[in-house]
Amino acid sequence: MRAHLGPALRLALLMTVVLGxxxxxxxxxxxxxFFPAQANGSLVVRHGTIVGSRLIGQSFTSPRFFQGxxxxxxxxxxxxxxxxxxxxxxxxxxxxxxxTNLAAVExxxxxxxxxxxxxxxxxxxxxxxxxxxxxxxxxxxxxxxxRVNHLPVATVRNLVESRIHGRFLGIYGDPYVNVLELxxxxxxxxxxxxxxxxxx
Length: 200
Prior knowledge:
Layout: H1 2-34, H2 36-39, E1 43-46, E2 49-53, H3 92-108, E3 132-133, H4 135-140, H5 142-148, H6 153-162, E4 164-165, E5 176-178, H7 179-199
Antiparallel strand pairs: 1-2, 3-5, 4-5
Helix pairs in contact: 5-6
């Protein structure tokens, strides 16, 4: 038994060093060297201040901004408590949640046909932190965002369309729009519009 114990302990120590120290250090170094933005959380910085991450959604409640998917976390988009609602398709609570979210979308976007509302505006994501919405979900909100920000509808629509990310490698996933990036662009555009009106 002692003859086997020594090699086993040495192997365990070797694997601890290689897999617990060397491998993580090498991967961290590669990440920082070749993909520094992604390795540090894909943070979005504006004027020297971190305003969010491209990977974690935020709660935008102001009508001047595009709104993301409903979040099942408490409070919404709580990154420390990522969770889905876990409501199954036969659970009445799921229907109630969808109906509540649909009513909120209709209130925020007058004139919208309930049948044209994309699922991602009424169903929470599996993580509760989804930072993206479908192009259809973004385009549905264009009239409201344009009206509240005193911008032409066509201008806001073009802004959305210019920020649509396609499928990965052209075949994987669905096209999407990052809500934070879109709202930052809207904020800049609205500020420029107000400056132009004041200057004019």
